[in-house]
Amino acid sequence: MKKIIFTIALCVSFLTNAQTLEHKIPSTAQAVVSVNGNRLLELVSIVEFDKLNIAKEFFREVNKDLGDTSKVASLKDLGFDTSSKAYYFYQPTDSISYFQFMIKLKDKKLFEKLIPKSYQEKIERKEGLAIMADYSSFTVWDDNTLVFTGFSDSYQYFEKNKKRFLKQAEKEEESIYDIKKRVSKNWAKKHVLTTFRNDPSKSILTNSSYVKRKDKKAVASFWVNNYGELIETTMLYTLSSMFMSTDIKPNRNRYGVDGVWGNFYFEDNAARLTANMEINDTWKKIYKKMYKSKMGNEFFKYFDQNNVLGYTSISFNMQGALEEYPNIVSSIYGGIMPNYKEEIEAVAEITSVLLDEKAIGNAITGNMLFILNDIAEREVTYKTYEYDENYKSTEVTKTKKETLPEFTVMIGSKNKKLLDKFIRLGAKHELVHPQAKYFKFREENDIPFDMFFVVKNNIAFLTNSEKQIVAIVNDKVSSNTGKHKKMMRKNISVFYANGKKIMYRIPESLVSSSEREFYNFAKDNLSEVEFTTSKMKGNKIHMELKMDTPVSHQNSLKYFLNFFELFVK
Predict the structure, then answer these.
(1) Which of 72, 310, 389, 476 could form a disulfide with 372 if both were Cys (CB 3.0 to 4.6 A apart)?
(2) Do the beta carbons of residue 379 and residue 449 sit within 8 Å?
């Protein structure tokens, strides 16, 4: 039954806006996710959604679980208010962690028809509330609101208080397992009832950090009070349970990320997911030194947007990262093993002394650009074995046609002499083979193609296209950066892919009949995808994922729904 209630509510949440629900979220919640039904219904109506194959499949699954209790043919049949917001929030305590989902009811009777008779008998009705309990969850509702609460107890807490619970078990003549189970359930029930009747003066709306991050235009939003502590607490719960240990110590915030928040937008021309991170004072200095680099103009001399299917760029300061190495090690590992913090810091300091940060930073600056130039059919060689009539094997080299990516990797380097020394060593031991103006190498057992390497204009080039390396050494590469130069210069990292170009480079001969419809849809409809991570401004880093929508679709939500339809036909 828990699966039915949660699955139905989760689905409806994607088409569910009532501010009164938000007042029930406690101010101590550490993470909140909201879905704005009003905004979604502006993009896709319930009538349109009900006609989709994904909706019909969902209704079929719900009806299968319900048996003859009720039949669902529309979102309206679920009894939820599909024009209201739905919320998920997480609240950890020292003893139990709570995972809660809240949604507004429009028709309580319709909702209760979804509950099988075997569960109807277990519903506790008290003071206008209906309470349904499961092994590790509670579902509570009244005429207007439903709150689903899942809970998980802390192994550490119950182990630390084991003597108290053993004493209680002896007194009540029960096993400690039953005592633990009953205590957890009673606490969880009290918690969910408190949440249901939460005092608005103690709601999440009193948290200024949460309130100022809200965006009414977003389809969905998320907010995390302290990401570093949330992850550490989750890891502590998991590890202490796995290893049955109470000695595992949390580092609280080992990577220096405090608040995290973001929004999801379905717009006419694109779908966008934005996220923001606040970096604490300890890590702010580290991040600034690690990412103070900017993609050099020398990289753009070898970038032609007309011959790019996709790329990934990273602007990273290797020297700055190495200089901050002791602080990074101390921050990450010192808190985990506080008894050995001095030893950890000493080893990190010695390592830093032995490293020549400037020399390494010159050899590998940290700036990198990976370009997907093409996807093409190529003849590759491979080794296999042939057997004579006596089953004696002979190793032979054969060729075959394979569709492979053609790519170029560019890595910033200001020390050509050092890299040339390594290459000459490789040539001496016949690992690389000098060509006219570049080097060729291949590990036949690992990769099915030749690789080519050269250092030029403070860049180390590595590519699997001989045509590309020849153009590079002879200065025959056209420069046409378009919008991409600005994107790479102002961001720490950029991921870009042109979906349409990529799909048109995949040979139709590789597509099976069952994949044909998806392949044709993708060729006609996939567009550009961009994922950027900004440089730090103050103590904040901004990230954005943007997926363009073809003009043939009314809006980006309908585009994605049409895309998913292909998977459920």
Answers:
(1) 310
(2) no
The domain ranges of the chain are: 2-219, 368-537
- As a whole number, mean pLDDT of residues 337-361 equals 60
**Beta strands at 137-141 and 129-134: parallel, antiparallel or unpaired:** antiparallel
Identify residue 266 by its one-letter amino acid code: F
* Amino acid letter, 120: Q
DSSP string, 184-252: HHHHHHHHHHHHHT--GGGBGGG-HHHHTT--TT-SEEEEES-HHHHHHHHHHHHHHHHHT-S-PPP-S
Of 274, 459, 473, 436, whose CA–CA distance to 371 is shortest?
A: 459
Q: Please determine, for residue 90, whether its predicted confidence score (pLDDT) is greater than 50.
A: yes
Packed helices 556-565 and 53-66: angle between N→C axes, nearest 10 degrees: 60
Phi, psi of 98 (to 5 degrees): -115, 135
Q: Which long-range contacts (CB under 8 A, 24 or more apart) does 416-421 make?
A: 416/455, 416/458, 418/363, 419/363, 419/455, 419/460, 420/455
Query: Which SS3 state, helix, strand or coil, does residue 305 take?
Result: helix
Residue 92 C-alpha from the chain's centroid:
22
Q: For residue 19, is pLDDT > 50? A: no
Encoded tokens for 204: 């999440």
Q: Where are the alpha helices (DSSP H) in 339-482?
A: 341-354, 357-363, 416-428, 466-473
Token pair recorded at residue 94? 């020292």
What tens digit of pLDDT does each residue of 494-530 get? 999 999 999 999 988 888 888 888 888 888 889 999 9
Torsion of CA 209, 137, 2, 145, to 10 degrees: -50
In 10 A of CB 195, how many CB atoms? 21
Per the confidence metrics, is the pTM higher than 0.90?
no
The CA–CA distances, whole Å, from 6 to 1, 148, 416 equal 9, 7, 60
**Rounded Cα–Cα distance for residues 470 and 465 (Å):** 9
Amino acid in position 348: A
Other residues' Cβ atoms within 10 Å of the Cβ of residue 505: 16
